[in-house]
Design a protein that fits this description.
Layout lengths: L1 E4 L8 E2 L3 E2 L5 E3 L7 H9 L4 E5 L14 H20 L12 H17 L17 H19 L4 H12 L10 H4 L7 H7 L2 H9 L7 H9 L20 H15 L8 E2 L1 H10 L7 H8 L10 E4 L4 E6 L9 E6 L5 E9 L8 E4 L5 E2 L7
Parallel strand pairs: 6-12
Antiparallel strand pairs: 1-5, 2-5, 3-4, 7-8, 7-11, 8-9, 9-10
Helix pairs in contact: 2-3, 2-4, 3-5, 4-5, 4-10, 5-9, 8-9, 9-10, 10-11
């Protein structure tokens, strides 16, 4: 399969990977033949990209870091929790939500089991969900990435659970933001941004009242926007005042936000998002944590179309976790732009004079500009 912009989708193409709704249900299943009506429906749902089956790339399988069942269960748990808290009155919010911690512990156990079963631990993340559901899938993505980082740092089961549950609930405070802000299709104004910063404290105040949620998990919600140099919020903490869990979740939060499309901008290239994070090492986040994060992210995810410095274009078909910046490319178009009847593969670990200069599908990606986050 290969990833293409929704603008490149054509009738009779076969969908290569399932697309989900905001509540984790199937919007369109893998194997469905696209029609003009289905393509228009995907566009209206805010889908910017799809995986398609292609005879030349049908052997390229993009792995799920967690199973669809685990993802759906996680999204459903987050959504039910949001609904339960939202529907409660202000008095009820002062007490613990029944069995909240138990439900999230069950979900986290599934996420951890899926990650432990994945030998490579290399994340090929591309959001394929409708725009209204981005917040729920974002929370799951952040939890998956943060847990992978925690595992690489040697965290024990208790630490992983605190980190993972905190990651799943890091944005829970956004339920107290006005609906006109959370559904807005344009960037927030400066005034709205200042108000939105309150979501960190709002989330902490919700979670610290839950008797079966660790206070350290609650501090993830409070501190995930804090930065080492004191430039973060809501308390302007510095250095060791920021818990390591919150730093890890902050890194994962920034990466997933940058690589997720917004109504006002395209998604960032994975390597540009990673470059931004590496540049922030030492003053926004601990460099060792960014390096631990980088070890688990595919710079060039499987199935994406790239261009080499020779002008040849193809699809990423293999990635060695130890050399994720030097993938194997299945060349499908020569340097003159001619489609090849017989594609061939180039292993960039061996072809040292070759390198990727960009992604072939310009409809998907924007130039790096962190202010657009």
């Amino acid at each position: 399969m290969r990833l293409v912009s929704i603008k490149q989708a054509k009738p009779s193409m076969k969908l290569g990977r399932t697309i989900f709704t905001d509540d984790g249900k199937v919007l369109l299943g893998a194997g469905v033949l696209l029609t003009d009506r289905l393509i228009l429906g995907l566009i209206r749902s805010g889908i910017d990209s799809i995986y398609i089956d292609d005879p030349r790339t049908n052997d390229i399988i993009v792995p799920d870091m967690i199973t669809p069942e685990t993802r759906n269960k996680a999204v459903d748990t987050i959504q039910r929790t949001v609904r339960q808290i939202t529907n409660s009155n202000k008095v009820a919010r002062r007490v613990s939500v029944k069995d909240m911690g138990m439900h999230f512990q069950q979900v986290f156990h599934s996420i951890l089991s899926d990650l432990m079963a994945n030998e490579q631990m290399l994340l090929h993340l591309t959001n394929l969900c409708s725009q209204p559901g981005v917040i729920y899938h974002h929370s799951v993505n952040v939890a998956v990435m943060a847990t992978a980082v925690g595992m690489s740092l040697g965290y024990n089961s208790k630490q992983l659970k605190e980190l993972g549950i905190g990651a799943m609930l890091h944005d829970i405070g956004k339920i107290d933001l006005p609906e006109e802000m959370t559904t807005k299709k344009t960037r927030w104004s400066d005034e709205e941004m200042e108000y939105a910063k309150q979501h960190a404290m709002m989330g902490f105040n919700i979670l610290r009242k839950q008797h079966d949620i660790s206070l350290l998990s609650a501090h993830v919600a409070l501190q995930h926007h804090e930065r080492l140099d004191g430039s973060g919020y809501p308390q302007g903490l510095k250095g060791s005042q920021i818990h390591e869990y919150a730093q890890i979740v902050g890194i994962c939060d920034v990466y997933d936000n940058l690589t997720t499309p917004r109504p006002w901008r395209k998604r960032f290239l994975p390597q540009d998002a990673l470059e931004y994070l590496m540049g922030s090492g030492g003053h926004m986040f601990e460099l060792k944590l960014i390096k631990a994060f980088r070890e688990h992210i595919a710079v060039f995810p499987l199935g994406t179309s790239v261009v080499l410095n020779t002008g040849e274009a193809g699809v990423i078909c293999k990635v060695d976790p130890l050399y994720s910046h030097r993938p194997t490319v299945r060349v499908m178009r020569d340097g003159r732009g001619n489609e090849l009847r017989m594609p061939y593969e180039l292993d960039l670990r061996e072809e040292l004079k070759l390198f990727v200069i960009g992604f072939d599908d310009e409809e998907l990606f924007s130039l790096p500009n962190a202010s657009n986050k």
